[in-house]
Each structure stands twice: as C-alpha cells, then as structure tokens.
Amino acid sequence: MGRKISVVFPFILIISLILLPVSSPAFQNEPDGFGGVLWGTDLSTLSGMVYDSQFTWAAGTTLFFKRKEDTLNMEGATLTSIRYGFWEGKLSDVLVETRGRKNWVALKRACFEKYGQGFKENYYIENYRWSGKITSIVLEYKESEDLNTLLMKSEVIYEQIKSKLRQKVGEQ
Which residues on neighbouring strands pair with residue 142, listed in sequence order? Predict the structure, then answer.
C-alpha cells in the first residue's frame, strides 16, 4: 500500500499528546490549519493529494499525504517534505521536515516571527512548543539526526482522539 511513516513521527506525536495541554491560551497568529487547508477538512474535498505513508496506533490510522502544489520553502528554509495527516478522513496534523543547521535557523526564525518565542522546556535542547485552543505546535531540532521538524496539530481533532482512546481503555 505504501511505506510506514518513520519512527520519528510516532515519538513526536505521543510526546505532543502528553505535553501539550488542551486549555491553553492562544498564542499570536494561532493558525486554524496549514497551507490554506483548515483543521477538520475532509480529505475527499481536496485535490492534488498524493498518499505518502500511514501511522497506525490505538486510536486508529492516520494517513499522510503530500500535496502536489506545495512549494518546499518556508520563509527561507528549504523543506524536505510537508505531510498532511488525516485521522478518520479529517485533517488532524501537518508534519514539516527539513535538514541542516541553516534550514533550522530559517525555520526557527520564521516560527518565532509568526508565533512568538514559544516555550522552551530545556535550555540545552532545541525544542519549542506553542499551545493554543485551536492548534498546538512542536518545533524540534535534532542535530545528531540532522533533522528539523515542525509538527502542527488540531486540538479539536486530538480531543476526539483522546476521547476514543479513553473509550477503548474503558472497554478493556
């Protein structure tokens, strides 16, 4: 069918579910989607989406697609990919990846200019979070892997996912 998504995304996803609170105040310019696509948009209404990978977990399967029309550049950062995640057919996540220190600096600068400084939990780790009522964002630099990731997720969809997970746990 397609390749399974890398080990990096499940780790980021699980950590973001744990660390990002739901009832946070909004941050500046909090987005309600990505690239002109709103959270919760049904996959069937979008054109130019190409299947990329999937991530199966206790809450079901999130299918990831790339969009043919996307330009792989974000405010001076050259991107390696933009993946749109759809849980139960609705846009729930966006994962942006880039490589190299130069692209990290450009991506970080773009995020800080747009969303503010973000929350940095550990002085020694290049990891920033923005938690809002609509969207939560994790920006991470992993020098050892030469990988930079920007994960954006819909808080509304993730509340639905958490509810489904609680139901599954209650059934066991």
Answer: 147
- 66-90: per-residue pLDDT in tens? 999 999 999 999 999 999 999 999 9
Q: What is the rounded average pLDDT for all residues in the chain?
A: 88
Q: What predicted TM-score, i.e. pTM, was given to this entire model?
A: 0.83
Number of domain units in the chain:
1
The Cα–Cα gap between 129 and 119 comes to 5
**Whole-number Å distance between alpha carbons of 108 and 171:** 42
- Per the CB < 8 A criterion, the answer to whether 99 and 80 are in contact is yes
Could you give the CA distance from residue 46 to residue 43 in angstroms, rounded to a whole number? 6
DSSP code per residue over 87-143: ETTEEEEEEEEE-SHHHHHHHHHHHHHHH-S-B-S-TTS-EEEEE-SSEEEEEEEEG
In 3D space, the residue among 97, 32, 90 whose CA is nearest the CA of residue 63 turns out to be 90
Dihedral of the alpha carbons of 88, 89, 91, 97, in degrees to the nearest 10: 90
Structural domain boundaries enclosing 103: 3-171
**Are the CB atoms for 52 and 83 separated by under 8 Å?**
yes
